[in-house]
Amino acid sequence: MTKPDIRRPAAIDAAWLTAVLQDAGVDAVVKSFEAKNVGTGQIGESVRFRLTYDRDAADAPRSLVGKFPSPDDTSRGTGIMLGNYLREVRFYQQLAPKALVRTPRCWFTDTDATGGEFVLMMEDLSPAEQGDQLKGVSLEQARLVVEQAARLHASFWGDTGLDELSWVQGSKAAPTSAVTPDLVSGLWQGFRVRYAERLKPHWIEVGEAITGRWSQFGEREQGPRTLAHHDFRPDNMMFGTPAGGHPVTVLDWQSFSYAAGATDVAYFLAGALTPDVRRANEAELLALYLAELSRLGVTGYSMDDLRRDYSVGAFQLFLTAFFASMVVVQTPRGDDMFMQMLGSAADHIVDHNALAALS
Question: CB 172: neighbour CB atoms within 10 A?
Answer without folding.
Answer: 12
